[in-house]
Amino acid sequence: MMKLYYSPGSCALGIHILLEEIGAPFELQRLNFAAREQYGEDYLTLNPKSKVPALQLDDGQVLTEYQAISTYLALTHPEKHLIPADPHDVARMYEALDYVVGTLHAQGFARIARSGNFTPKPEDEPAVKARGQEIFDRGLALIDATVADKDWVAGDFSIADPALFYVCFWKTTRLKQELPVNLAGHFGRMMHRPSVKKALADEGL
How far from 202 is each of 56, 145, 199, CA to CA, in Å? Predict the structure, then answer.
């Protein structure tokens, strides 16, 4: 059985949602980030990157990084159609997915949530957070424009949608900020999916 290593409400939430979507058996292994369990010897042996998500497969192999794990799940469950059939839509899906994970998350929200990682000077942290908010908001505005006339990121529901959901979830719950109108619609559609409801409940969110 696959095992997902996660911290509640983290980016691993997107993978949790995808696991619910495909319906394959898996178990959850929670990491207590406050207790720094991600740096414990057992987890470092499994995932030297000391972050989530990490997915341990049935044969013991471990996959990390949202893009890699989500692609693996989609390709091993083609009947779920989590990657579009049209090459143009595939390109648009990965375009959005990479931007969400690599820019909105890693460059924007990370500066807001962990400003100390971006400067050695505590007095600079407010400026780091402000820059993070700027990157985050600009990125969300760009994505908002791309979903103005559709329900999902790349036509039908795909692996990009749970990634977009988790950053929007942070915007609404951790930052207590409103989403742009089109992303608010996407967020609402995600919240109605059984997979999202189950994942949120399982993580106590």
Answer: 19, 32, 5
Task: Assess whether pLDDT exceeds 90 at residue 87.
Answer: yes
Q: Is the pTM of the predicted complex or chain greater than 0.70? A: yes
Q: Are residues 18 and 115 in the same domain?
A: no
Position 23 pLDDT exceeds 90: yes
Output the pLDDT for position 13.
98
Contact in structure between 75 and 18 (CB atoms under 8 Å): no
For residues 43-47, average pLDDT: 93
Query: Which residue range(s) make up the domain with 42?
Result: 2-81+198-202
If one counts every other C-beta atom within 10 angstroms of the C-beta of residue 6, the result is: 23
Tokens 């000077």 sit at which residue?
A: 121
Helix (H) or strand (E) holding 26: strand 26-30
146 and 178, same domain (yes or no): yes
Instruction: For residue 65, give the nearest of 51, 75, 77 by alpha carbon.
Output: 51
* Contact (Cβ atoms closer than 8 angstroms) between residue 124 and residue 148: no
Place of tokens 């931007």: 99
